[in-house]
Amino acid sequence: MEILDRLQHFGFTDAAALAILVVGWAVIGWIIENPSAHKPSVTALMARYRREWFVQFVTRDPRIFDSNILATMREGTTFFASACMISIGGGLALLGNTERLLGVARDLTLETGPAVVWEIKLIVILLFVANAFLKFVWAHRLFGYCAVVMASVPNDVAHPGAQSRAQQAAELNITASRSFTRGMRSIYFALAALAWLLGAAPLVGAVLLTLVVIWRREFASQSRTVLLTPSQEPLT
Predict the structure, then answer these.
(1) Is the pTM of this model over 0.70?
(2) Minimal CB count within 10 Å: which of 11, 94, 160, 232?
(3) Residues 154-175: what's their mean pLDDT?
(4) Mean pLDDT in residue range 128-155
(5) Residue 51 CB contacts under 8 Å (≥ 6 apart), including other chains
(6) Distances in Å between the alpha carbon of 34 and those of 80, 148, 177, 218?
């Protein structure tokens, strides 16, 4: 009953806007990770390049270049994971200070409502940030696994297990990148969820704008055009 009493402060428009937020986040992720064969996403294209990277990795000597690339990827996951932790800490601190929370709410909107309304809205935002944090941590861990497998690739190109071991490293790298990309999408939608503090309509607008931005970057960006440019040698 207590939960129902708290939810009664939200109307149908709030529920619909929240549903659009969650469904939009899930659907765009599925579309990006499962694109059609004739219109691949940037994520799918980069997976092909990652596999080609590890084909070249076997014959490269020395392999310092490859280890530097992987170290840069791990640094990126560390940065975003740290940023998420800071955001989560700030959000929890705001939840623990009801008076300041209501003060922020009054500055953002003319409506006055109980603190529980703003607390629930902040919790939704924090859930997206927490999901991003977990994705970044897992991506960092997978890049570490990839580094270990890379180190186990034989230096002898003619070794029967060299190519297969390199492709194992490639698949780990692709999985880590997928987790990193999911974390980034969660951050995008956490930023969109901030608009809910202004009301249901701003939230819907922010979600639609976020969907357009993400779709364009994956399916209609200049970087995608560059990745599609044919080269002399086909990618594996």
Answers:
(1) yes
(2) 232
(3) 91
(4) 95
(5) 167, 170, 174, 235, 236
(6) 25, 29, 15, 12
Is residue 99's pLDDT more than 90?
A: no
pLDDT average, residue stretch 21-45: 94
Residue 50 CA: distances (Å) to CA of 107, 168, 178: 48, 11, 12
Q: Which residue shows structure tokens 């200070």?
A: 97
> What are the backbone angles phi and psi of residue 52, rounded to the nearest 5°?
-65, -35
Largest Cα–Cα separation, the chain: 72
Q: Which of 5, 183, 186, 148 is nearest to 70 (CA)?
A: 148
Q: How far apart are CA 60 and CA 225, in angstroms?
A: 28
Helix axes 115-151, 162-193, angle to 10 degrees: 170
Residue 18's CB is within 10 A of a number of other CB atoms, namely 20
User: Using alpha carbons only, how large is the chain's radius of gyration in Å?
Assistant: 22
Percent of the residues in the chain that have a pLDDT greater than 90, as a whole number: 67
- Residue 22's nearest CA partner among 179, 118, 131 is 131
Question: Which two tokens mark 148?
Answer: 């270990």
